[in-house]
Amino acid sequence: MIPPLRFGPVIDGDAGLVVVDISDPAAPVWAGYYDTPGWANGVAIAGDYAYVACDDAGLVVVEVFQRAFSLEKNTGRSLVVSASGEEIPRARLAATQLDSIGWELSADGGTSWEGLTPGGGWCAFATPGSSLVWRSEHVYAGQGVNPACSDLEIEWLYNFAVIDSIVDVPDDQGGWARVHFTRSGRDFADEPTYPISGYYIFRRIEDLFQKARMIGEAKIVEKGKRETSGARQKTPVIPASARGSGSFYLNDGHSLISEGKSDGLPPGTWEVVDSLLALGEDQYSCLVPTVADSCSTLTYSVYCIQAQTDTPSVSYFSPPDSGYSKDNVNPAKTQVSVMAAGSAKGSVGTIWLTWDQVSTGVDGSSEPGPISYRVYCDEDPNFTPGPGNLLTTTADLSYAHTDARIGDPAANLYYVVTVLDGVGNESAVSNVVGEFDKSLASME
Questions:
Q1: Which of 37, 90, 363, 390 is deepest in the core (most CB within 10 A)?
Q2: Predicted pLDDT of residue 162
Q3: Chain-wide mean pLDDT for the chain?
Q4: What is the pLDDT of residues 188-235, one digit of tens each?
Q5: 23: Cβ contacts below 8 Å, ≥ 6 apart
Q6: Under 8 Å between Cβ of 244 and 261
């Protein structure tokens, strides 16, 4: 359909009718053409039509503007926009458009359709499916109105939650990450069949010794049942949806050995590290412990989220994802003293160093350790510590340095100590200590 414009018809005998947009006379634009069945000799304009006189065909009438509504010519439809093969219970749509455009979504590949208002919230599909497509209807609303869409955004939800990101908690001593995830498509107050009651965050157990200890000490619980301790009801056992899995408790912690069935947890041994109530929010986040900290190398922890419904035997498991934590806090620096000096000048001697124990970071938080100390030595009192002047790394609070230069008036040694935490973070340097036995210059 050519939009309303000022146009100038041009006939080109062999080419037929040519339409030129002359809305800006200084910059005419080619708008379209029609190849007439015969040689075009003349043209006249009346309303939306051009009347072309042709040698062989006689009078040819060409509709330049299409103003009549045509369902076939005024609709658009997408290809499948989701390729996971998972069921989609809800979706929503936002569009930047010039009216009038109507939108519909289908989750079953176009067999059934749901009308949506852009920005109108989540739509529950009467017929869920795994092939999401959209279609639009561009409605003619009068001269000068050209329905157009410059931006279209479609979001959809699965039955399971989706982990969006796992990020390190900044400026801490490590051991924690934050999981961000998108809710289940059944986490809605109006969900008629399987409303979500809560989410359980599982972390995969990688340590073989921990697995063996857990299996050896755990109390096995029959699948689909709940274990109680007095009047207190513990975390529900993974429901029958995790078929082929064994569930057990250890120290009130809920763990699971999974054989990796298609509708349950991935293969492995898993433990619950956190749980959340379902509140009907689009996004959730929670703090989760990691299996280790990362520094020079990254140590990943693997997580999976269970969306539990009000029906104990029905729950949905997210695809797994992984993240890591870092100890972002350096240890506090220590204070060094010279404990004792060695033998007389000119002979081989020993310098004894001692320093204060450090158990906190620069922010005052507790350092988990293990803590060790690096001792550096150089003849320059303003030296920069590095591999070339490192004497030792020790967990002790003292160090005895024996060196032929100790006591030599021509050479003076200086020392600093840094603190190293369990993941390799190094503190600022301590105070400078050493020997200051410069020889006296001749007064002659």
A1: 90
A2: 97
A3: 80
A4: 999 999 999 999 999 988 765 555 555 555 444 444 444 443 333 344
A5: 5, 6
A6: yes
Q: Is residue 196 within 8 Å of 185, Cβ to Cβ?
A: no
**Cβ atoms < 10 Å from Cβ of 200:** 22
- Cα torsion 418, 299, 293, 237 to 10°: value is -170
Rounded CA gap, 337 and 331, in Å?
Answer: 19
What per-residue confidence (pLDDT) applies to 181?
Answer: 98
CATH 2.60.40.10 occupies which residues in the chain? 336-434
Domain 336-434 has CATH 2.60.40.10: yes
The model's pTM: 0.68
Q: Which residues of 235-253 are buried (b: 16+ CB within 10 A; e: fewer)?
A: ebbbbebbeebbbbbbeee
Q: What is the rounded distance in angstroms from the CA atom of residue 80 to the CA atom of residue 78?
A: 6
Name the residue type at position 248: F
How remote is the C-alpha of 15 from its chain's centroid? 57
